[in-house]
Amino acid sequence: MISSFIPRVKTQTQLFGFVALLTYAVLTPDVSGANRLLSRTQRLYIGTYSSELSKGIYLAEFDSKTGKMSEPRLVAEMDSPSWITIHPNGKYLYAAGESKAYPDGGLIAAFSIQRDGGLTAINSHAPNGDGPCHLGIDATGRTMLVSNYGSGNVSSLQINNDGSLEPSNWKDQYPSLEGKQKPHAHHACFDPTNQYAVVCDAGLDRICVYRFDEPTGKLTAQDPPFATTAPETHPRHLTFSLDGRFCFDINEKAMSVTSFEFDAKQGKLSEIQTISTLPENYKGKVGSTAELILHPSGDYLYGSNRGPDNIVCYRVDTNTGKLTLVGHASTQGKTARSFGIDQTGRWMVVGNQNSDSVVTFSINRKTGIMQPTGSELTLGSPVCFQFQQIRRQLIPRK
User: Fold this and answer.
1) In sequence order, what DSSP letters do the residues of 156-196 get, joined into one string?
2) How many angstroms separate the Cα of 142 from the Cα of each of 43, 129, 200, 293, 326?
3) How far is CA 157 from CA 112, 135, 137, 206, 339, in A?
4) How many degrees, rounded to 5, is the angle at CA 142 between CA 215 and CA 117?
């Protein structure tokens, strides 16, 4: 199912007052810092659903000064890596294979990131559920949570120091409720303190909260174990404010975003506000929402609508957690399942799943308003984006 990519390490010699060897390294904590310069180039990894136009995980180079992006190249062949995420240390990438082609209901794959951004397969394991659609890694980089949409459970895998994965030995199976409500875990992440994990269950209209023990990776349900959203809202994805005081979730069926106050002492969510993702007085076709991402500044929140095909922008009141509508921008395509914001906060790339396109927008960092740049690339069913900053190191010749 997975074929590794054998990279070429790229080096370049330049003169900066002295002859130096320029090598590239990913963004990692660096105590020296003095001899490392931030590159304007970022890597952009793209997850896809497999089709005639897509065969796995792709990589493009993104210029954070101009907003221009190189043609994506295949760096790992894999069946429907619909979610990808990068390890906190920047050395490894993980992918969720969301396909019935896998005998165990899906696949969680680990890759090492090479100097040129290429991927080399490490190992893989079953997701301990069916239909894995999201991966979340804690701040220590030792525990991964898997949201299994098909089976309606969340599971965990431990990550070794070499980036390899251990088989899953824990899961929490959510129940089926009276009527037609069946569980569909859709998103799991850790709060900024790394003391809690939260999981969106789009089928049960619940956001589940767990106490997380860093040394052991153990997860224990809080009391109460979940917050309930309004009936038939279907919470899909969520994100925390930068200070962790607030949590925001996007509701797939209700076409709305709900903001919560998060009590980090008790691990409790309290609803503040629910606001529509649709334009005011919108009368057209209504589909569903998808992605939700906080701007790096923490001042703006963006969500995607799949019918109408647009991105909604809100201003975040960082004191109260309330949201105010800024506006909408057309995605220039069909079915905006996902998007990504680069680490400078100046650019957004949007994946139009059903029109096989990746469209770039500029972001006004003072107003949050998006504008299409005119850049559009063809890629089959792009559904997940992960930016990675690159640093370049100058090593003087001896």
Assistant:
1) EEEB-TTSPBPPP-EEEEPPPPSTT----EEEEEE-TTSSE
2) 23, 20, 21, 24, 38
3) 17, 10, 10, 23, 26
4) 160
105: left (phi over 0), alpha (psi -120 to 50) or beta: left
The pLDDT of residue 39: 80
**Structure confidence by residue, pLDDT tens digits, 74-128:** 999 999 999 999 999 999 999 999 999 999 999 999 999 999 999 999 999 999 9
Instruction: Give the model's confidence band at 34: pLDDT under 50 very low, under 70 low, under 90 confident, else very high.
Output: very low
Cα gap 296→309, rounded to integer Å: 23
3-state helix vs strand vs coil in the chain, percent to 5: 0, 55, 45
Band (pLDDT 50/70/90 cuts) for residue 38 is low
* Contact (Cβ atoms closer than 8 angstroms) between residue 377 and residue 53: no
CA end-to-end span of the chain: 46
> Looking at this protein, which amino acid is placed at residue 149?
Y
Between strands 288-294 and 300-306, the pairing is antiparallel
Contact (CB, 8 A) for 177 and 170: no
| Residue 178: per-residue pLDDT | 81
Average pLDDT, the chain: 90
Over residues 289-308, mean pLDDT: 98
Q: What single DSSP character describes residue 379?
A: -
How is residue 35 written in tokens?
A: 């001899």
